[in-house]
Amino acid sequence: MYNTGLLPGAHDFVLNNSHLKDNSTNVNIHNTIVEHKHPGLKMLLEASMPDAFHDSSARDPPPSCHPGTRHDFIDTITSWGLGTSQHTEPMLWMYGPAGVGKSAIAQTYSEGLAKRNKLGAALFFSRSVGLNQRDDPHRLFPSLAYQIATKSKLFGDTLDSRIQDDPTLVTKSMREQFQELLVKPLTQLGPGAAGVVEGLVVVIDGLDECGKGPGAHCDIIEIIAASVRNRTTPFRWAFFSRPETHIVGPFTTNDMHPLTYHLDIRVSRDIDNEITLYLTDELRKIQQRNGMPNSWVSERDIGVLVNLSGGLFIYATTVIRFVGSHKLLGPVDQLRAVLALSSGNKGAGSVHPLLELDLFYTLIMRHAPPGILPRILAILLLRFRLNGPGLLEVPQGGIADIIGLSEAQFRNACGSLHSVLELDPYLEIKFYHASFMDFLRDPSRSGEFCIFSRLDSLRLELLRRLNDVHSRSTGPPKEPFRFDSTWPISEIGNIMSYHRLVRIFFNLCRWDGRPLDFLTSEALLNFQFRMITPVWNSALIDRVRQNLPVPRESIHPDFRDRIVRRTYNPFAYVLGTARKDVYVIGRGKNKVLCWREGKSRAWYLSPYPTWF
Description:
The protein has 4 domains: 34-264, Rossmann fold (3-Layer(aba) Sandwich); 269-353, no CATH class; 359-449; 455-607, no CATH class. Helix content is 42%, strand content 10%. It has 24 helices and 13 strands. It has helices spanning 39-46, 71-82, 102-115, 140-151, 153-165, 174-194, 214-230, 245-251, 272-290, 299-309, 313-323, 331-339, 355-366, 373-386, 398-403, 407-415, 435-441, 443-446, 455-471, 495-509, 518-524, 533-536, 560-563, 571-575, and strands at residues 25-29, 32-36, 91-95, 119-124, 201-205, 236-241, 260-264, 421-423, 429-431, 564-566, 582-585, 592-597, 602-607. Keywords: Repeat.
């Protein structure tokens, strides 16, 4: 038990007519009681995020660069931080997609600066859910001010006195906090005394992980940029973040260009040699810990792991965590499970070796705006279905067109996943790493974020759009590429959009192993198949015609016989085809006859003859 009262441990003494005041206070950091003799700094610490400091035990072990890796980046930003680089900008922004290693570089960089006494402060934002939240932007400037106070006693004393005079300083808005906790105390020191902190580097990692959203991110950038522009603080500011749209904007304005040194970390196979070094060293440590022979892993195995990593360090580090885990099958079997991923075989019933990467991707998906999450899943589902090998390809902007989104809406939805995918000027989606789509396709890994969870609602949505257009029309178009005035084509967009919507809907209906749900099957009862006959028979949809529009087995059993049934009527002989290849699709006046024709084995539709 700690005795932290007045004169702890003293005994056998007498005080006469004395007035004593105990100005010490106690601060509990990481379950250790620390006596703090500066009440103002104590309040500042309580308003900070000590768990987000670069040397916090809450982050132990922090992500850091493996020895021998990332030297190019670290050397570049170190020379910038020390003022020996040709880049003299007072701000640095290092950006890159999720998992590329930004936080590891920021941590190693901070540790190197600390050894040189050039680190003013470092704060690592994180959305990690737990008791110790590290994503509150309103605790950023108190955290930075407290750390700088520990580097300069004079600054610390000045700040302590200011907070004692006005304890509300730590609760003010971010803009006021910056002025009251950093700018004004530095001004009080005067030029000479302020020179002690001149040129110190302040590191802010994970700006995109602030919990208050884009507004807070922009405010932080603008507050610091204004200070740099007006020279009210003497620091160098280093930011590390994902290239989220709302962060890219402030950093790329004309007035920010002369202030900021931009460094882009891309996913690149150029670092395969560094990943090889990392994997080799870490697998050797696993071998030594478990007393295994050198032959337990071969150079070929390491080559497979490097290829699986695809230039992404997070994949390699996740693999090492999995292989070295003592809670699963053992290093040998766990390594084999990872190697099996190269052939797409995960092993029945096995624990997925990329659990930590899955948690990482889950975190990204969970922080997508809830209001547009269904739209995001629909986009990703179509991206997977329509651009896969041997499947339908859609032109630029096609996915947005199918879902009924404007270009701005489409970009906004995809922008929320900027850390794992890239959207080119032609609205083509490119993933930074294939593991993200692997994650989305496997419901045992992605759960509520599995793209197939959106399949039923997407099919029903497209069907309803088609039904709505058909219900406003008096009959099928006379030609597949020309609609008359009776067609409300504005509801779809244009004739090509209608063609695309028809083929995409029926493509989704024929997804093997994913039959139509009850609601979509029920809605299909009233679908006007006769409306699509010219479109279906056109060359534009030729790749879709290799099967019935809706195979019987894909329809819910309650509606199967009412939507698709074989016919044995004499009309089959008029068509010159075998009876087994003739079906009636739909019901009532909306039904059509469906048959095969020619060597292409394509299916053709015609309105069902009412005289049979």
